[in-house]
Amino acid sequence: MPLGHVSLAATPSTYKPMRDFYLSVLAPLGYTLFEEKEGCYLGLQTNYNPDFWLHCGGGGSGDGDGDDMLLVDPSLTADENRKRLGVRGNTGRAHVAFNVASRRMVDVWYRNAVKSGGIPNGEPGERPQYVKGYYAAFVLDPLGNNVEAVYFCPWWMQAMKAVPGVLTVLFGVVAGHVATGYAKSAGWM
């Protein structure tokens, strides 16, 4: 069964940077505002399906005394930020991947995400260590979540996309040959 929606947590002091980041980085993927209660939650949608949510689940008073979730430091690398935030491994606090329609869209998304404050966590490129045909890019969002744009099109999917064109040409050649034979037998040629 496919995933219905994803919701990431923010806190009172991190809600606005997270909101601004996701409004910016998801716009090129066709996301628009579905619903928002300022400071509480934000729902984004594509094709009338609100599948990405940001919610303010508390977790601190926001008064800066250390009980709030820390924002990433733009002057640090992804590895340095993960260490600072106490995150182990390469994934971040949470990992969210968005499917896109082309390699070019991964590239555009990545440039926009970095321009919008995302911390580079993997430039656009083929990821053969996952599977051949997996082209992706990664950034950390303001809270250190690992956000990915991925275009997955292995060789067999590329071949399937080519089948209709090949069949059309093949059918055209066969139909032309049959029509020419018929025209000759009928004396039209």
TrEMBL record:
Residues 2-152 form the VOC domain. This is VOC domain-containing protein. PANTHER family: GLYOXALASE FAMILY PROTEIN (AFU_ORTHOLOGUE AFUA_5G14830). The lineage of its organism: Eukaryota, Fungi, Dikarya, Ascomycota, Pezizomycotina. InterPro entries: Glyas_Bleomycin-R_OHBP_Dase (IPR029068), VOC_core (IPR037523). It comes from the Eukaryota.
